[in-house]
Amino acid sequence: MNPVMIMTAANIQAARLLNPLQPLLLLGLRLWVSWQFFKSGWLKLGDWDNTLFLFQEEYRVPLLPPELAAVAGTFGELFFPLLLILGVIGRYAALGLSAVNVLAVVSYSHILLASGFEAALAQHYLWGLMLLVIVIFGPGSLSVQRDS
């Protein structure tokens, strides 16, 4: 057997062993990234006065008044994760959460892009990558809508 045939056979065997894990990986991605955003939305909802203060004084959401940005951001952090956890319109839920993620970085860029905050920014990159995987591959077979 030549080396190419050996590598091809090994690759086929690896695919047979690993492909059944894809639904678990996609479920894990959905649960992990959803939890990160849901926690944030729940905290905002739990102390609305503080949330409004942050949107008025700290976050710099472009184009929207602070009160509307607070409502929209909190809604996005609560609604899209619920859809994503269930796998209901999973690709669209991941796209919606991606928009929330991008807006969070844009609104807080004066902090996230400063020296010393590389790890905080890297979290947003990681979440973006996780959401991109879900957008491309879908929520997986362990979801309500398998091809959403």
Properties at a glance:
148 residues; mainly alpha; 77% helix; elongated
Which percent bin holds the helix content? over 70%
As an assembly, this protein is single chain
Structural class: mainly alpha
The largest sheet is:
none
Query: End-to-end distance, in Å?
Result: 43 Å
Overall domain count? 1
Spans of at least 5 consecutive residues with low confidence? none
Number of strands: 0
CA radius of gyration: 19 Å
Mean pLDDT: 96
Strand content: under 5%
Shape: elongated
What is the ordering of alpha helices and beta strands? HHHHHHH
- Quickly count the helices: 7
Record the SSE blueprint:
Elements: H1 3-18, H2 22-46, H3 48-57, H4 66-86, H5 90-107, H6 109-112, H7 118-137
Model description:
By secondary structure, the protein is mainly alpha-helical. It has one domain (25-137). The chain is built from 7 helices and no strands. It is elongated and about 70 Å long.
Short structural description:
The chain is mainly α.
